[in-house]
Amino acid sequence: xxxxxxxxxxxxxxxxxxxxxxxxxxxxxxxxxxxxxxxxxxxxxxxxxxxxxxxxxxxxxxxxxxxxxxxxxxxxxxxxxxxxxxxxxxxxxxxxxxxxxxxxxxxxxxxxxxxxxxxxxxxxxxxxxxxxxxxxxxxxxxxxxxxxxxxxxxxxxxxxxxxxxxxxxxxxxxxxxxxxxxxxxxxxxxxxxxxxxxxxxxxxxxxxxxxxxxxxxxxxxxxxxxxxxxxxxxxxxxxxxxxxxxxxxxxxxxxxxxxxxxxxxxxxxxxxxxxxxxxxxxxxxxxxxxxxxxxxxxxxxxxxxxxxxxxxxxxxxxxxxxxxxxxxxxxxxxxxxxxxxxxxxxxxxxxxxxxxxxxxxxxxxxxxxxxxxxxxxxxxxxxxxxxxxxxxxxxxxxxxxxxxxxxxxxxxxxxxxxxxxxxxxxxxxxxxxxxxxxxxxxxxxxxxxxxxxxxxxxxxxxxxxxxxxxxxxxxxxxxxxxxxxxxxxxxxxxxxxxxxxxxxxxxxxxxxxxxxxxxxxxxxxxxxxxxxxxxxxxxxxxxxxxxxxxxxxxxxxxxxxxxxxxxxxxxxxxxxxxxxxxxxxxxxxxxxxxxxxxxxxxxxxxxxxxxxxxxxxxxxxxxxxxxxxxxxxxxxxxxxxxxxxxxxxxxxxxxxxxxxxxxxxxxxxxxxxxx
Length: 675
Ligand SMILES: *[C@@H]1O[C@H](CO)[C@@H](O)[C@H](O)[C@H]1NC(C)=O
Ligand SMILES: *[C@@H]1O[C@H](CO)[C@@H](O)[C@H](O)[C@H]1NC(C)=O
Prior knowledge:
The protein is an alpha+beta fold.
């Protein structure tokens, strides 16, 4: 498993204490494990030999956790840092020199690193500590003048490349793009070549789900290109290609995307994929008004260099090529014609217009989001009822069994395509590990009657993507501390969910609403409050989000965006609480269906009033709510929410003959009263 659902910005280094014991045991084992040491050393030695054999010998080689498309989750074929270091965490960057081997990673992974890497060869650089030097600082202070630092330019975005290059140049050092990946070469040499890059079947997504044909999208993108004086738009992010063409794939787990590049010019569309397009895809593109040439994915850089030459010879000098600054350094170089032109082309390297287009969901996508949340609500509610039944009747259910059962319930729902990330089923102290992922090997944790149980999961449906967290006490008898924390987190979720705010403010403005009730008593949570979500695409979608730290490319909040609303509280070694809903941003006027609409006195001097409509439909655990801590507004908000859950899901359960589930839901959604 690669990455989980909560966006972390700063880290809970305390979390590692819970694992300290297992790590000591494991270390004792790996010290004895000379086979493991031999293998780790062999890998490093092979890489170092390749570094020394470059045209200009490399003093250091950087191996980030990245693919050529800046994907958040990567496929096994791109897991190079994992292979060279043995460390399997989802984040981290390795640096190898002739005498040192280091991995920079954050506090989520310190323990895991120490368990997995050979510590006689590898050094952990604790990125979350302020006195740990950055990679840039470390390189410039440890290498000598004239040193060459190598990177596969496919694994660095231009945004990452430029500052490192500037820093190295200042110290008289060089950043060298090494086109062939040296880890892949080392793997091949050692008879352990990288796995094959997936080229799974590409499926069309009809306009019934997308609301806008690929032809319309391309026409709109071409208009933006005219405004920017761009001769070509190069799309490198996999979700952007999938979105533009209304196609989906399964090359990366949990993300319905396929390895590809897309180049749009005023007169052509070129798609670069591993395999030929199927007749079904061809027919879909025809229907959607797209005429497109398909090329092998390996040809994209040659194609870009040829395009650069042509533009340089025949262009008017006023038009440029448009790329996202998140595009790889390799693609930027090819598009500028760096190795083939005396004067490389200027590029427009800024946020992609596709990212901004897919950020605002159209009416069909929004309706799909609402509909899939109804079906997802049915599945999650059924799971929660099932789980209580099991525990009440004394059966032992492990965290993994609960996660697997949830998948079964989701599979009963129409248009379900798979999970949107790996389920986080945190019972008891595991709930406090924000990115917890139980191992399927070894002893599995049973969910105990006295556990708080945090369940964070999501589904991919053809009409939308879900991401929900609910926390429950299995014996319905939380301690006062658990109840109070549960209620404070819920108050935060309500304060954010019911907030009104001016159109165009950036997401970080809203962050403190969700923390208010915790901050009042000196509590907090070490992750962001909300992330964007793709439409049957990535469960984390930029460029907006809600965190104390502004998202650099957040264009300001607008109606039609989908965000998560997920405050939490984590008591390390004890329990974790998170309440997560997905919400859509709506325009609010006095007549809107919004709990604060009637009280509006103005519209922020014409800027427009925005608020949220909550999409997620699963009850909160009432036994964990301290009603005395709720204001009248909060109490009526919750009662109205629960009524809506029952009114929406109830008839479906009834129609399907799921009478026991219906009875459970009725009880869970009954109004709360003050004592
Ligand atoms: C993937 O590529 C292989 C050849 O490498 C080919 O045989 C296979 O049909 C391709 N799969 C798809 C779904 O196109
Ligand atoms: C559940 O597990 C406990 C040990 O953790 C064991 O004593 C008990 O018998 C198990 N119960 C069932 C119903 O299997």
